[in-house]
Design goal:
The complex is a heterodimer. Chain A is mainly α. Chain A is built from 9 helices and no strands. Chain A has a single domain, classed as RNA polymerase sigma factor, region 2, helix turn helix motif (Rna Polymerase Sigma Factor, Chain: A), CATH 1.10.1740. About 13% of the residues of chain A have low confidence. By secondary structure, chain B is an alpha+beta fold. In chain B, 40% of the residues lie in helices and 21% in strands. Chain B is built from 9 helices and 10 strands. At the A-B interface, helix 1, helix 2, helix 3, helix 5 and helix 6 of A face helix 2, helix 4, helix 5, helix 6 and strand 4 of B.
Chain lengths: 180, 288
């Protein structure tokens, strides 16, 4: 990050390549709308890039980056809530994601369909959690962040992070057990 | 007997257990309760399935690459910034500042090339002389120094990283990049420094606990790859030799330290086959 700020060519590019997979996953899990993940990821990286001249290496870079991702997710959600009358067109990257077939390493078609069903059910369940719970659950499992990193990202005490996380997982279990 | 024990396992404790955030005694208590209660086992299994699915890759996103679109957008931001920066400036002032910068850069390069090594004797300063001689030579295309090397940057409080110069302060953080190209790129890298007191200070791999013997880090074939961590060491004042070992097999910290303890010749080749050693010299200022 500091090298990128210092103007080293390709340093920011390398940073994007290094973190993009987890950023995309966090965005998809946090929004429970995977087709928006590419746009959120791109905007989050651009937020970080715009802030480069002001960047101070005080904490962990991961926390800094994922704070930008969470903020972008919140903005996207706010925009989506007002989408009743207006729906913004998806970018080419988002359309590419939406158009791709879901694939699974399992060759059995039945298992693939079941896995896809399970995924979709879980995504819908995540969508029913509060924003606060979605923040921690996506950062923990999709972002692979530790409790302290999540605490730093969200500006919360570690104890609160754990409580929210365990609450979120238990709520997901309850939602998934509800008769459909 | 089983029912009361299962009841003592709260939903929060069970979720913490599945996430691995319990003490050993809590873990064994929950494990016992799970053994005795099929309902608790079912709930635990369901929580594991949920967390596993949340952690698993999302197939549709695995092949998505936003790097190209981010690059295009950052280029647009840069152009915009450049235009904004140009707009309020007085043209002659800008021209003179550019001329000034060019002259300063030329002077700095001249100093680096002309300045002779000040020290003599069997120490890191001689390694610097060796390095400068090597840098000045026109290496053949197959020589590793044409294709592999590290960049060292010092990080000061609040400022941008600067390429390592003639001097660093003891408090400076250090960042590294590496380039690893050519027809047969290397697979592993070590970076360390030998300071004025003869202490070996490790950067990559991190070597923080005595008794461990970490090995070289794996590297990719690319140019200017940044290594993300800013590392600080309590260097002794005096000359410091930053060294990189590019190798085809991972080397261990202990074997490198025992080689260094034999005080190898400054320009001597490392004892491991197909290993390239690069040395970058600087001087650590004494604390005021």
């Amino acid at each position: 990050m500091l090298l990128a700020r210092g103007g080293l060519p390709d340093a920011f590019d390398e940073l994007v390549r290094r973190h993009q997979v987890r950023v995309l996953r966090v965005a998809a899990r946090r929004l429970a709308r995977r087709e928006l993940a590419a746009d959120v990821a791109q905007n989050a990286f651009l937020d970080v890039y715009r802030a480069l001249p002001r960047y101070q290496p005080r904490g962990k870079f991961q926390a800094y980056l994922f704070r930008a991702v969470v903020n972008q997710c919140r903005m996207t959600e706010r925009a989506a809530r007002s989408e009743g009358r207006f729906r913004a067109p998806l970018s080419p990257a988002a359309l590419e994601v939406a158009a791709q077939p879901v694939s699974s390493p399992d060759s059995s078609a039945e298992a693939r369909i079941l896995a896809r069903e399970r995924e979709r059910d879980l995504e819908r369940a995540v969508g029913r959690l509060s924003e606060k719970l979605r923040d921690v659950v996506s950062l923990r499992y999709a972002g692979e962040l530790g409790y302290d990193e999540i605490a730093e990202t969200l500006g919360l005490p570690v104890g609160t992070v754990k409580r929210r996380l365990f609450d979120a997982v238990e709520k997901l279990r309850q939602i998934l057990e509800e008769p459909s | 007997m089983s029912a009361p024990r299962a009841r003592t396992v709260s939903a929060e404790l069970l979720a913490a257990y599945v996430d691995g955030d319990v003490t050993p005694s809590q873990a064994s208590a929950v494990a016992r309760a799970i053994e005795e209660s099929p309902d608790l086992r079912r709930r635990a299994d369901e929580l594991r399935r949920i967390t596993a699915t949340l952690s698993s890759p999302i197939a549709e996103l695995e092949s998505v690459d936003v790097a190209a679109s981010v690059r295009a957008a950052t280029a647009a931001i840069d152009r915009q910034r450049a235009e904004q920066a140009r707009a309020p400036r007085v043209p002659w002032l800008r021209r003179w500042s550019l001329l000034g910068l060019t002259a300063t850069a030329a002077l700095a390069v001249g100093l680096l090339v002309v300045r002779p090594a000040r020290h003599s004797g069997d120490g890191p300063a001689d390694e610097a002389a060796g390095l400068r001689a090597k840098s000045a030579s026109t290496a053949p295309a197959s020589a590793p120094e044409r294709w592999a090397g590290i960049g060292v940057y010092r990080v000061t409080e609040g400022g941008p990283p600067q390429r390592l110069g003639e001097r660093i302060s003891r408090d400076d953080g250090l960042l590294f990049t590496y380039t690893n190209l050519g027809t047969r790129p290397f697979a592993y890298l070590m970076i360390f420094a030998v300071d004025g007191s003869g202490q070996v200070r490790w950067f990559y791999p991190a070597y923080q606990e005595a008794g461990t013997n970490p090995s070289s880090i794996a590297i990719q074939a690319n140019a200017n790859v940044p290594l993300a961590e800013v590392v600080r060491h309590p260097f002794a004042a005096g000359p410091a030799a930053f060294q990189a070992l590019f190798s085809r097999r991972p080397l261990r910290v202990e074997e490198v330290e025992s080689w260094l303890a034999r005080r190898p010749a400054p320009n001597g080749a490392p004892p491991w086959p197909e290993t390239y050693r690069q040395i970058v010299m600087t001087s650590v200022e004494a604390p005021r």
